[in-house]
Amino acid sequence: MTPDALKTACLELNGAEETFPFNPETSVFKVGGKIFALTALEGKPLQISLKCDPEVAVQLREAHPAITGGWHLNKRHWNTVTLDGSISDQLLLEMLEDSYDLIVAKFPRKQQLVLDWPGVKPSPSH
């Protein structure tokens, strides 16, 4: 995946925005003010850090040498993925969506509805 395709994939998620709170080289992708992805798009090799369910994070690291504990992040909840060609675009996009979903799942239902999030629970019947 190219840096441009990666940036596009991040920004295609509803409500996603690109910010630069740390430095001009590090793109920080947020939804509702919460980080779901960090990457230096000009980095060689290209890497991205993504939020991940702790149990899944360990499984992914064991199965893929290009996936490691989040660099400078809580390694229990974040993975850093090196895009060296060993991780399929499909797996990367699934991990990106999972990271986004972990953030949006904690938002109030009203905010989830505004984002048109597919995981939003139906309102309880009266």
Automatic annotation (TrEMBL):
GO terms for molecular function: DNA binding. Keywords: DNA-binding. InterPro entries: YjbR, YjbR-like_sf, YjbR/MT2646/Rv2570-like. The lineage of its organism: Bacteria, Bacillati, Actinomycetota, Actinomycetes, Kitasatosporales. This is MmcQ/YjbR family DNA-binding protein. It comes from Streptacidiphilus alkalitolerans. Pfam families: YjbR. It comes from the Bacteria.
